[in-house]
Amino acid sequence: STHRRHHYCTQPSHDNSKPFLESFERILLSNSPTKPTHFTMSAHPSFSSNELGLVKGSILGKHYKVEAFLGEGGFGIVAKCRDTMTNRAVAIKVNKSRPDILQQAKLEIFILEQLRRLDSDAANIVQWNGFFHDGERVCLKFELLDQCLRDYIWDRKNHCLPISEVRPILGQLTNALSHLGSVGMVHADLKPGNIMVVNRHESPIKVKLIDFGLACPASAVMPGDRVGTVGYCAPEVMLGLPYNEAIDMWSLGLVAVELATGLPLYPGNEDYDVLKFIIETQGQPPDHVLDSGVYTEDYFIEDKDKQQRWTFKTDQQFQRGPEAGQRLFVSPDKRPPRSEPVCTWTPIPGHKEPPTHRCLRGSATGRGSGGRGR
Prior knowledge:
Layout: H1 18-28, H2 49-52, E1 59-60, E2 64-73, E3 76-83, E4 88-95, H3 99-115, H4 120-123, E5 128-134, E6 137-143, E7 147-148, H5 149-154, H6 163-182, E8 185-186, E9 195-197, E10 207-209, E11 216-217, H7 235-239, H8 246-261, H9 271-282, H10 287-290, H11 296-299, E12 300-302, E13 310-312, E14 345-347
Antiparallel strand pairs: 1-2, 2-3, 2-14, 3-4, 4-6, 5-6, 7-9, 8-11, 9-10, 12-13
Helix pairs in contact: 6-8
């Protein structure tokens, strides 16, 4: 099973953010008067038409006809639908009716409501057009975009792009992060799979940032929150250190390398492998930084007699679980297990997905490769 843990910080970074954060906290605590809500789901979700009762031709709400299934995840599915009243194609995220997923949908709607203050085209973020109920399910309506950036580069020669294409894409994504920062938001899961090409046949291409299911006010997270995807998270997230909007910029740098080379800068199926690459290429964080990491002891051994007290664990010292790429679950009272975010979606069978982009999430027996939050 998986977790996403939320914390509430009483030190907002924006003067007008207090009512916003109080509302965010009320949603988080609505299922429990004493502690934050935890969201649990399978670490290896798979779509079942029987589970949601949806097939091509199904009607969602009163007038959205399902034409194709674009993706799936623990939350449910993303479908291409036709609005029979306007004949316009839209993308609809259909959430399962489980209580934990409904709660996560409330959080995503709350975040999307705040982002409505931005011009989606000018900000390079997906346009959200509200939500509706289909029975007990919550359905989110989005503009239909062409292709995710992961698939766009995978279809290209050598799976990479020329600098003439990389430059405008990075400019647009920097613009998106700047706009998110202007409203105090952290995306927390920036990666090629969450970047959409508006129209692959246009030049230069325009991209938009999608999937705000793990987004959070920058002032409403604390060290130890875990979201995101292995290989794209900043070290402070993996180590449980204090962080802010800068973690999105770290992820953008990794996306930039991948666009230009076709390869991930820090390959790995779990955080240990990624941290090992980072330390080998950029050096180890100083001891005073590691001292405050919630998860430092997962990856380092402390020896107070040495000048450099923290030493990165060897492959033999780093205890892996019985499943390949999985960590053993240690000290549950101190460290929340990793999670497969409820909101994250993966392509349905038949859609191309490069193996290097596939991340293994933590299961009930391990948390070394799960999601986390900034």
